[in-house]
Amino acid sequence: MEQRKLRVGTVLMGVGGPGQHNTWLDPEIPTDASVDIWWYIARAQEAEAAKLDFIFIADSQFITADSPNHYLSRLEPLTLLSAVAVHTRHIGLVGTLTTSYNEPFNLARRLASLDHISGGRAAWNVVTSGDAGTAGNYSRDEHYDYETRYGRGLESVRVAQGLWDSDEPDAFPRDTERGVFFDRTKQHALNHKGEFFSVAGPLNLERMPQGQPVIFQAGDSPEGRELGAEIGEVIFTFQPTIEAAIAFRTEMRERAERKGRNPDHILIAPGISAILAESDEQARARQDAIFGAKSFDRALAELGRPFGWHDFSQYELDAPFPDLPDEIGSNSFRSHAGAIKKLARDNKLTLREVVQAQIDSGRSPFVGSPQTVADQIQKWFEAGAFDAVNFFGTTPQDYELFLGVVVPILRERGVVRSDYMAKTLRGNLGLPIPENRYTAARGRSVDRAPDAEMAAIH
Fold it and tell me: What is the dihedral sign for C-alpha 95, 57, 376, 227?
């Protein structure tokens, strides 16, 4: 059997995401990197030269003045990725789009367009929007509750998948000799009427090079894990230890299998921050310096995000962590908020200690020289902790050492593939192209036809 290979992607966050308060001060990072398309193109080309599988663009649609620097001003994912697509040839393009504040027809059309533009490299990171304040930007007084968010999420993906099957692969013969541009028997209206959406179809764009975009999914609540097991092909997560990562991957594969899916067609891809230097000692010192320089005030403000941007500055820092009502954060990042409250309760922490714990939680298990970090990644991978890694770099030094040294070490060991295997993202991730449902039904009817004729004879 072919040796299992680690897939590698990278998250691009310009001037710095959560906890990266001082990233923008690095002299090698443009202070407008989050809105500089040429910065993204250069990073994507570097990742492609290293044979990475994908770049990943995170997104949200609500900010406060305390939001991470990158969040305050950043490009819309599919607009960004469409520009990157025409300056790259192989690397996958993953964009985050919410099902809570988009219609599935628009989502399906925009993602299909990116897949055509890129020649089959599009992927959709499905989210349901954790920032409750997003509702106010979309003419709603309140954010959707968890049940509604995830119900809409599943139905939205299913509708998009139905629309992507509107045209069978041979619906556009474009035969100039016969004067046949389009075979109308190969196009199908969806006529979907569900709990949240009513969509007639068909989609006004022919079938994509990879059939359908790859579905990424991120969500750690029970509802999020159920959605991932139902529709996710790559599950984006954060796991602090190898034991937790193994348990998560095992659980998600079992959930997917119970739903009738092939567990080998669901890849677990945690985000990792690798702190790299020439030696282990220098890397540890570098991590201490990074975390020692983190702004406590910014971390205190960012603590409010999982709780619907609750203002924690109103509390005494050295008093016990406040006993918050359950409704605070109930429609935001509920699992994250619950984990913070449990940490504080179980350890009798003050607010100051909780904030510091959140700062320290960003410390990485992947710290050291390129050799050491490569050893750790290989250890986690071979232990079954993940199928892919989604690398969070902060500085040009991080990218230079990770792409230029860590990845080649893993390649020499046979952990990652030596070159791109296919033209599509699906092909490079080892995921199958979904068969068009109407083509499949047509094939089944053809297979049954001889049996029907024999039955008629007898």
Answer: negative
Residue 203 and residue 303 share a domain: no
Look up the domain containing 161 and give its range: 7-274+364-429
Sole residue written with tokens 């069978």 = 168
Shared domain for 213 and 307, answered yes or no, is: no
Is 268 part of a structural domain of the chain? yes
Task: Please report the pLDDT score of residue 453 as a whole number.
Answer: 45
pLDDT tens digits along 279-307: 999 999 988 887 766 678 888 988 988 88
For the entire predicted model, the pTM comes to 0.89
Query: Same domain for 72 and 142?
Result: yes
CATH number of the domain enclosing 270: 3.20.20.30
In this structure, the answer to whether residues 24 and 121 fall within a common structural domain is yes
CA angle in degrees (0–180, nearest 5) for 343-345-346: 70
- Write the CB contacts of 355 (distance below 8 Å, at least 6 apart in sequence): 296, 299, 300, 303, 312, 317
Please report the pLDDT score of residue 448 as a whole number.
Answer: 62
pLDDT of residue 457: 39
Contacts 24+ apart (CB under 8 A), 339-342: 340/303, 340/306
Query: Residues of the chain whose pLDDT is less than 50?
Result: 1, 452-458
- Which residue, among 409, 391, 380, has the nearest Cα to 275 in the 3D structure? 391
Is 299 found in the same domain as 201? no
Number of structural domains the chain divides into = 2
Of 366, 371, 409, give the one whose Cα is nearest residue 391. 366
Inter-CA distances, 316 with 112, 294, 322, 341, 351, Å: 51, 20, 9, 16, 7
**Are 330 and 370 members of one domain?**
no
Question: Which residue, of 339, 360, 381, is where some domain finishes?
Answer: 360
Q: What angle do CA 291, 76, 52 make, to 5 degrees?
A: 65
90 and 238: one domain? yes
Question: What single letter denotes the amino acid at residue 177?
Answer: E
Q: Are residues 215 and 301 in the same domain?
A: no
Give residue 137's pLDDT.
94
3-state secondary structure of 125: strand
The residue from 360, 386, 407 where one domain ends is 360
- 97 located within any domain: yes
Q: Tens digit of pLDDT for each residue in 9-26?
A: 999 999 999 888 888 999
Torsion region of 324: left, alpha or beta (phi above 0 gives left; psi -120 to 50 gives alpha) = beta
> How confident is the model at residue 134, as a pLDDT?
92
Measure the CA angle with vertex 81, ends 75 and 85; round to 5°.
Answer: 145
Nearest CA-CA partner of 355 in 285, 395, 296:
296
